[in-house]
Amino acid sequence: MAYKGKAVMAAAGSLVLLAAAVGIQAAVTGPDFDQGVAAKPALAAAKAAARLEGALSGVEQAPPPPEEGVVWISVGKDDLTHPSGVDIPLGAPVMSSARASVYRVTEDRLPAIAEQMHDKFHKCGGFFAHGTREEAAKDLQAPPPAAAVAFTVDQGAVVRPIVAKAQEAEIRSTIETLAAYNNRYYTADTGVQAAQWIGARWSQLAKNMPGASLRMVTHSGWKQPSVVLTVPGSEKPEEIVVLGGHLDSISGWGGGGGARAPGADDNASGIATLTEAVRLLGEAGFRPKRTLQFMGYAAEEVGLRGSADIAKQYKAAGTKVVAVIQFDMTNYPGSGEPIFLLTDNVDPSLTAHLKKLVEAYTGVPAAETRCGYGCSDHASWTRSGYPASAAFESAFDTMNHQIHTDRDTLGNAGGDARHSVAFAKLATAFAIETAKPAGAAGLAPASR
Ligand SMILES: [Zn+2]
Hints:
- The chain contains 13 helices and 12 strands.
- Helix 7 (168-179) crosses helix 9.
- Mean pLDDT is 87; it is low at 1-9 and 15-37.
- It has 3 domains: 5-56, no CATH class; 70-138; 156-447, Aminopeptidase (3-Layer(aba) Sandwich), CATH 3.40.630.10.
- The strands form 2 sheets. Strands 5-6-8-7-9-12-10-11 form an 8-stranded mixed beta sheet, with helices on both faces. It has a 4-stranded antiparallel beta sheet with strand order 2-3-1-4.
- It is an alpha/beta fold.
- The radius of gyration is 25 Å and the shape is globular.
């Protein structure tokens, strides 16, 4: 307490001093505030003192507002201590734990840091970027455990006829459309246009699902929105099942708005997988018991920013998300036909559910792999205490190494979308088996 007492006194003293200076000044000269008195430093000192005062008196003080052009990134200890990780130009950490370190960096350095993470660890994301130091500090501790949910696989009669209609050509056409944008970078106009195209496409495909609605989520700090399609549940609307993938792309150090970044595999393929699931469920007129949300996240490549923003908002609002699945890169058959399930930064019981779905409905085997700290948007949900899972194109070390370059094209992934068909079946089966059909079969097929 001693130390604290003195500090309080000091703070109070400077507060009184300032009040006196202000009072006198104002009285004497009206609006011309700081004639003859260096107010700014005194004001800053007073604010600091007030914050200290508040902290010590236990009064909740609002964290300082985000600094313009500054972000706080967290990087996993495994990467920092990895031989390749030591020379990432991050400067000195401002906070550290056994799990991660936090750095204060200016926003313009994000593309270069992202590229270092991609180059050295072949990760898609690889770190979190937050607007405030307080938010970043949460990454120093392991995330809170997710609430356990009992998942079942018992809707074969509904799932099988629907997934049988999955079409490679539909998936390929979505990949080609998205890869045709010069890039889908989070600060580029083409990045906004691609998000708008996805929104319009999902709205159109979902029109036969009762109550389906679309929301473009704007994020403070950059212009690319995230896309959220909601199909309301009829019996447990407050319980939400999320299927997502990032919609942005990046290439090269500069990243920047001008670089050519087709991102056919990373991650037009994940968005195409989700789009095919929306198409199949829309055609079937699927009505879920639980609410379904399909999400295209903005700004994943520069620190999982869109998904972390949404997950934080859901957590703050007490939203009950019962399951999340992530599709990030589904089209490069680096390890043959299996669907690889991530086993780190995910929920084990949900991942076990995915394994059953792969084996029951996709026609390919399931396998396992790991991808490390903050490697994609599922980590944003896990970080906020929600059960998340992820399905990936191959074992991590045999993944598509053309990503984050202008060579990430459909042609360099075999020229077709055959590998993604099983992922579209998984996404569709996941939606039906996790949200469950409402009523008899929960279907009102589209009238031709
Ligand atoms: Zn990716």
